[in-house]
Design brief:
55 residues, mainly alpha, 2 helices, 89% helix, rod-shaped
Amino acid sequence: MIYKLNYSILVNNYNGIRCRLQKSLNLFSALFIFSIVSDLNVYLSFITIVNQTGC
């Protein structure tokens, strides 16, 4: 029982870390796109999409 609980905590932590990594990668790519396109509307819409992809 305790083993199962620890496993679920571990999985939740892993998912949280993976989510944060994915979000920061998305933000970096958003910055990259912004530096090329240099259109604030595109950047803001991308960030909105990134924030909506919940984990």
